[in-house]
Fold this protein.
Amino acid sequence: MHAPVPDPRDRLIVALDLSSVGAAESLVSRLGDTVNFYKIGYELGFAGGLGFARELIADGRKVFIDFKLHDIGNTVARGVASLAALGASFATVHAYPQTMRAAMEGKGASPLRILAVTVLTSYDEGDLNEAGYAASVAETVARRVAQARAIGIDGIVCAPTDAASVRAALGPRGAIVTPGVRPDGSDAGDQKRIATPFAAIRAGADHLVVGRPIVASPDPAAAARAVLAEIARALS
């Protein structure tokens, strides 16, 4: 028997980087069944997005809450418990050991998957140096992945350019989620370490977060289908 062909829709996460629930509702409506997985970050989250997340989940969609939590352990644990009760599929925390341990405690036995953010895709060596880090991007990512694996974190968020090295360090079980994905010909925007959907999947990414190339497109559904086609080609 042949193994079932993976559904590319399970791999694409569209970032709802929009300023109102109305705009998000309109985009989701335009995308229809083309997309089944959505990310909600600060912009929409602080404009009523958590209520919209409940609606998406009730409608059978998957939701990724990308608030990159980082605080004292008790605060992180209680916040993650609330996201687990919401029914979110993914939630992010910064990859600091105390924060990661608290998040894993907070999710309990729920199916919520905790993703640790290593180094933001908008950061390069100069940005780390400015922030006081002596280690390089690669060294910082490697250290944080090793700590995340030891803690038993569910997955890693990293730049697509780091996906291959993260997969080698993380092993086959953890999920790798990559923002900074730009189809050929797309504007990089404020991202510095980017790759195409095809390259990101081939490098070991499990899920791709795509925002502006789809959200800002005059035909979001067509833009999403183009990304899905690249994912399918990489999976085959």
Observations:
- The chain has a mean pLDDT of 90.
